Amino acid sequence: MRLLDPLNSLAPAAVATGGPGSRRIDLFFTVPELAQLGRPNLWHRWWIEGSGWHPSGGWRQRGGLWASAVSATAYTGGRIDLFGLGRSHRLYQAVGSGDLDARGEWPRTNHGRPGDRDIISAPAALASGPGRTIVALRTVRVVEDGPDVRGVWFRVLDVPIESIPTTSDPWRWRRQLAPGWPASRASLRAAPGLASRAPGSLDLFGLTQGYGLQRTWIGGDQAHAWETFDEPGEGFLTSTPSVAVWQNHERPELSAMHVACCYGPFGPLPGAVAMKSWLGRHWNKQHLIYVDGSTDGRGVAGPPVLVSWGKPRLDVFFLSQANLVGAGLGITHGVSEDGHSWDFSEILPVPDLV
């Protein structure tokens, strides 16, 4: 079974922000192969409620030489932070702030790597406050006379935004986010996924060695063991989990989570996109939201990214390839207004790579 990992695949990134009447989705796309040629390879376009996709010409270049897919975060509508790997597989951060629609490249910061460990996956990033960002990455430490040590490390910013120092680095590498949390010892099949259902909580998702979905989480000061989902018919997942949350501000413990992954493949490419949801009190059964060829003969060609600006809306994006000769690649955009039925009729062109 072929594994589709965002470090090597053309996975889009997206973030949804804004309230009713001012909602927007910012979509990003990288082509890691171009970084090896010294060509900037991060593209950006955005959807604004009431006016559709911008810019009208397609995509805007944001610069950088990215060797992986990126992860996009936003706590407010005026700033976006992107995290990905540079050509030396160090962690980089790009920041867009102020006028997010303006032309030009976004400034970047090199965060390096955690000690003597190599980073072996694209990052998953989560912003839960103006001074609270967590980035999770799979790592490996090569041991000369023994088995390599694999796990998950975290790059953490956790300071009040008004007190961030200007003369020192406020970020820290951390192996543990809570005592006894098993995430640091995980040997995952693909990059992790991150989500937060409530203040002080953190959910981390990954794929087991048997291509099933697993989760571990922190609630308050308590760390929980890995939970696996192995109902009959579940599993066969082959990409990084992408997580969207419907926040319940009155009852945070009842906030819903939705997790999307590639399903399959049954050939050289994945066969479908699958989703599993925590509905506030229980998990539903894994089900397929898109099956290869279900829209104009197009197949799934890369990992999905799932976003939501609030219940009951969900948006999913993934690279797709037409089964018809000469039809080429596009990014399929799926929309659900109720969390159940989906419209996959919109296909966005990929950036012009020439």
Outline the secondary-structure elements.
Elements (H helix, E strand, L loop, with lengths): L12 E5 L6 E7 L1 H4 L6 E7 L3 E3 L5 E2 L9 E3 L5 E7 L5 E7 L10 E5 L5 E2 L4 E6 L2 E10 L7 E10 L13 E3 L18 E3 L5 E7 L5 E7 L2 E2 L3 E2 L13 E5 L9 E8 L8 E7 L8 E5 L6 E3 L4 E6 L2 E10 L6 E8 L6 E7 L5
Antiparallel strand pairs: 1-2, 2-3, 3-4, 3-5, 6-7, 7-8, 8-9, 10-12, 11-12, 12-13, 13-14, 15-16, 16-17, 17-18, 17-19, 20-21, 21-22, 22-23, 24-26, 25-26, 26-27, 27-28
What report would you give on this structure?
By secondary structure, the chain is mostly beta strands. The protein has one domain: Fucose-specific lectin (Neuraminidase, 6 Propeller), CATH 2.120.10. The protein is built from 1 helix and 28 strands. The strands form 6 sheets. Strands 1, 2, 3, 4 and 5 form a 5-stranded antiparallel beta sheet that branches. The model has no long low-confidence stretch (mean pLDDT 88).
- Taken from the alpha-carbon principal axes, the silhouette is globular
Whole-number tally of structural domains: 1
Q: How are helices and strands ordered from N to C? A: EEHEEEEEEEEEEEEEEEEEEEEEEEEEE
Query: How would you classify the quaternary structure?
Result: single chain
CATH superfamily: Fucose-specific lectin
Distance between the termini: 33 Å
Q: Could you give the count of β-strands?
A: 28
What can be said about this structure in brief?
By secondary structure, this protein is an all-beta fold. It has one helix at about 30-35, and strands at about 15, 25-30, 40-50, 50-55, 60, 70-75, 80-85, 90-95, 110, 120, 125-130, 130-140, 150-160, 170-175, 195, 200-205, 215-220, 220-225, 225-230, 240-245, 255-265, 270-280, 285-290, 300, 305-310, 315-320, 330-335, 345-350.
